[in-house]
Design goal:
Helices cover 30% and strands 28% of the residues. The protein is of the alpha/beta class. The longest helix is centred in the C-terminal third of the chain and has 20 residues.
């Protein structure tokens, strides 16, 4: 079934949602036709089900029924704001893995990266994250914050478990089905010794993700996958 995006608050039974230009192109690329079943997502938990129709030479969706999905368990991904293109890929794929918040972290090593993520790139990153919902069918899009200094991440209220991806770490600890989790991933070159020590003091537990040292984008996705598997084991005893 084709999925399209709509603004939050606009999905209701009986509503006719006229698709914007970007969503209309998506439908055309999929070679969809009038009468075809469509799912409509707003990224804020609402999922509509309806039929594709033509409206004044444009595509629209006649919504037939609506469901509201609860917020998923909180998963914050705080990852070194390195190369902007690779960070955008992280945001896109993190949405598919169920991340609920993505924090680009400014650290000593990211500040030296010429192509690092900056505030001016956030709209594109957020758009890619939101677009990923059409692929994975998720009802909630993650919040993508502005680049944040590592020290401010440590001083923020971070409920629940805290993992630091670290090649010298141990096995991922158990995690209950609803427990909040914050995953901290270093940039290319990792965190400095001083930054790592601050992370440990802030309660982050070093977690090893595999036999090799991973690039920041690979580590972020491996950590989210590990968290999902650990959470599933906790949910099923």
């Amino acid at each position: 079934m084709i999925a399209v995006l709509a603004r939050a608050g606009g999905i209701a039974p009986g509503a006719r949602l006229v698709l914007d230009a970007e969503e209309a192109r998506h439908v055309e690329v999929r070679r969809a036709k009038g009468g075809e079943a469509v799912t409509v997502l707003d990224g804020a938990g609402t999922r509509g089900f309806g039929r594709l129709v033509r409206h004044d030479e444009r595509f629209a969706v006649d919504v037939e029924r609506v469901t509201q999905e609860p917020r998923p368990p909180a998963v914050t991904l705080a990852v070194g704001a390195g190369d902007r293109d690779r960070f955008a890929l992280v945001a896109e794929q993190a949405a598919q893995f169920g991340a609920t918040r993505i924090i680009p972290v400014e650290s000593e090593h990211t500040r030296a990266v010429a192509t690092r993520l900056r505030d001016s790139h956030l709209d594109r990153v957020r758009r890619r994250s939101r677009e990923a919902l059409k692929q994975c069918g998720g009802a909630w899009e993650p919040e993508v914050t502005a680049p944040t200094a590592l020290e401010l991440v440590f001083s923020a209220l971070l409920p629940g478990a805290r993992w630091l991806t670290d090649h010298a770490g141990g096995e991922a600890p158990s995690l209950s089905a609803e427990a909040p989790l914050t995953i901290l991933v270093g940039p290319e070159g990792g965190f400095t010794a001083a930054e790592r020590e601050l992370a440990l003091q802030a309660g982050f537990v070093p977690v090893r993700l595999g036999p090799h040292i991973l690039r920041f984008d690979t580590a972020a996705l491996a950590a989210l996958s590990t968290a999902w598997q650990v959470r599933q084991r906790g949910a099923h005893g």
